[in-house]
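Hey, quick one: can you model this chain's 3D structure?
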Amino acid sequence: MGDVAVVLKVLPEDTDIPVEKLKDQITSRIKGLCEVNKVDIEEIGFGLKAIKFQVIVPDEEGKIDRVEQAISGIAGVGQVDAEDVTLV
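Sure thing. Here's the predicted structure for all 88 residues.
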């Protein structure tokens, strides 16, 4: 088995949540579960910003779900979506 590159889009619960702080919290929480390749902050509109993480996870059953659950458990995270999944 190899590795999988996943792009995760994280939306904060509210526009008042500082996305830089949220980005740092998420990065430190998922470090043990996956390798963080790239992080971008994307303007959505009306003051809402999304954080896009490109991560590398082992190609194991349920591994992506565990990363999504770890992110969802952080205070201030409203939604987590896997946008793209690619074998590496």
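One thing worth noting: Residues 2 and 59 are 6 Å apart (CA to CA).
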